[in-house]
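As agreed, record passed on underneath.
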Amino acid sequence: GIVPTRGQTVGASRGPIINSASVKNNAIFLRWSDPDGKARKFTVVKKFWDGWRARKIKITDFKSSQFTDRKIKPDVQYTYYVISIDKHGIESMPSREVSLSINSQR
């Protein structure tokens, strides 16, 4: 349900900004910032193909603005975006998506 906020309308804030996305030691590292400064926590959304199935995983309740993903396989493209959640539990617009993959060592 929608909870009215007295005296003001709380719209969705702009999403987080992903500042860097890199691959190191078979892990993917993301760092982002919160331009509105209102975020209480963040959700990272990870999308990838698992064989013929499109998978989407939400990793919730981040207090910090960085994420290390070690659950990755070579030669699979992973796409991430970040959503911030304010003190009212309202989700922001999503950040832009970033896509990374690790090449298998042949």
